[in-house]
Design a protein that fits this description.
Strand content: over 45%
Protein name: Glyoxalase/Bleomycin resistance protein/Dioxygenase superfamily protein
Number of strands: 8
Distance between the termini: 23 Å
InterPro entries: Anthracycline_SecMetBiosynth, Glyas_Bleomycin-R_OHBP_Dase, Glyas_Fos-R_dOase_dom, VOC_core
Structural class: alpha+beta
Shape: globular
Largest sheet: 8 strands, mixed
Radius of gyration: 15 Å
Strand order of the largest sheet: 2-3-4-1-5-8-7-6
Organism: Rhodococcus rhodochrous J3
Pfam families: Glyoxalase
Length: 130
């Protein structure tokens, strides 16, 4: 069954966002695809999206909170692009997951996003292009 869902990215929290982006570029040939600052206040994050440059491949995103400490190393965020974010959030809940941050539409940058957790508490970002 094709749901239109695509594994799209992995995010890691970092302290020095530029140094980490430079490391992945030098060590693995990653290239900067985009740079964003999104969210507000305590939830604001800065991120650099890295890709191998092969086209429609998955991305590695290094990110940091703008106004709060970096979480300890070891946890990552899995990201999925979907065609129906509301239906996917419902499917997560029906499968035993929970909503961490409800759907937020960001028309100025062209996407909607929600954060959910799997049954063991691992963070997953769900994104839909608007």
């Amino acid at each position: 069954m094709d749901t239109g869902t695509r594994f799209a990215f992995t995010k890691i929290f970092v302290e020095d966002i530029q140094a980490e982006a430079d490391f992945y570029a030098a060590a693995f040939g990653m290239k900067e695809k985009n740079r964003l600052t999104v969210g507000r206040g305590h939830d604001a994050v800065e991120e650099i999206i890295l890709t191998s440059g092969r086209g429609d491949d998955s991305s590695l995103i290094v990110w940091r909170y703008v106004e709060r400490p970096t979480p300890p190393a070891g946890e990552s965020v899995l990201g999925f692009n979907v065609t129906d974010i509301a239906a996917t959030v419902r499917a997560v809940e029906e499968a035993g997951g929970t909503v961490d941050t409800p759907i937020e539409e960001m028309p100025d940058i062209g996407f909607a996003v929600a954060f959910v957790k799997d049954p063991e508490g691992h963070l997953i970002e769900i994104a839909q292009n608007l």
